[in-house]
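pinned: reference chain
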Amino acid sequence: MSSTPQVPDPRRKTPSFIAEFPAAVSAATAYELAVRLDAARQVYNACLGEALRRREQVRSSEIWRAAGAMPKGLKSSKESKARVTAFESANEDFGFTSASIQKFAESCRDACWIGEHLGSHDTQTTSLRAFKAAQQYAFGKRGRPRFKGKGRFNSIEGKTDAVIVFRWVDRRPAVRYLGLTLPLVLDPRDKDGWQRQALEHRTKYVRIVRRRMHGKDRWRVQLVQEGRSPRKSWQKPGQDTIGVDLGPSVIAAVSGTEATLEPFCPGVVDFEKEARVIQRAMDRSRRATNRECFNPNGTFKAGAKIKVRSHRYRVHRDRRAETERKLAAERKRAHGELVNRILAQAEVVKLESFPIVPCNDASAAASSAARREPSSRCSSARLKAPAFGSSRSLPTRRACPSTATTPASTRRSLCPRGGTCLPTARRFRGTCTRGIWRVLWSTIPSMRASALRTGRLPNSY
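pinned: its structure tokens
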């Protein structure tokens, strides 16, 4: 009786979340991990240089020019598909594909000492990382990718449950990586049982991350788990609909029963002041040790290079890096706290797209948005909404003021938001707070009565 061979099912795309744990490593293990990261860095630089070289060959070929001259057509039309096929064939002819770059990475690994420290999967993921950077540059999605300097390649990951694997060793979770064992440090309290529930999910692959904290290297293990992130006991979705309007430094949320207006990431400002003090100290040290690079009036000479960096400068540089790390951690914490609070009150969350294109005082608004990163908050809400059982609605129009005239924005009226806007609210139009006041003005009767009586907005808002 003959049996027909079974065709394997195609790889299914399933939701995933990241569970990060500190790793308890010895000095010898940390040294070996640093060597492997440096080996992966050299593989990345070699693959990136090769991918950029092949990209130039593809773009200078006749096949590429002929494909570019073909009619684009509508999306999913025959003309569009034929044009895409022509571009793909050009990439295949010159080896500008992920498979070709991975083979090139494996040949580089096997030709030198790198083969003693890296396996197959970690080499392939590193080469894929370099190829994607070059591919995005070829598509015009980002700028030209840069090569990684020593100490600037801080993560390495596997592809599946191989090479870098998660296992239970003596009833303790650990990660094994080519002879190294990295025990995971769990929170002994774990009040909500989140870590226990996260470890019960299937592990897709493992990522090892190096972070510089307080002047020392700390090692973290990220488990990419299958499924949705476990919900804590207090994380229950509400039954209301909330509209959220983001500005560079303020956020407004309006529901059927209440409305709030509060600063956005208020703790970020304190770290910014400390970072500015450190940066000025770094500049003074750099000027004192490299006087030949500056003109008598204090300006920098064109073409000069900073060669001398004193010990004090390096200390300030480490302090600056630590301050930036604290700022990023505080921003992430504030984003998560705000998103959890909003999603715990609403079943449907409506917010506008970001970035905001300000009209007045663009430098201050851009600096505030760079520190607080409102777009990251929107991404966090998009990722956490399914775990809460909530949905998220995103209007198609940009969250730009009605007076915006920059090419990146489109003019629009604020009529769909409803309500009557106060004349004094015009001074906020540069930070897109005009729409916030429209919502609050039409929602909160006490605010409307106070503004009509005094002729100005209350100080509490």
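why pinned: The first helix runs from residue 27 to 59. Confidence is low (pLDDT under 50) at residues 1-9, 356-362, 394-437, 446-461.
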